[in-house]
Amino acid sequence: MANITSKTSSNIFYQARYAASAHNEQLKSREGAADIMSIDRGRLYRIE
To answer: Phi/psi of residue 10, each to 5°?
Structure first.
């Protein structure tokens, strides 16, 4: 895992994405997750 702040690591959306990454490698990165969800990486960053 990269350098994740405590604020981010306690975010339920981040935790859900990280748990789902066990089944889908693309979800390990925000960029990959944003591609799957068809949203901007910056928007996903603000959500998490």
So the answer is: -90, -5
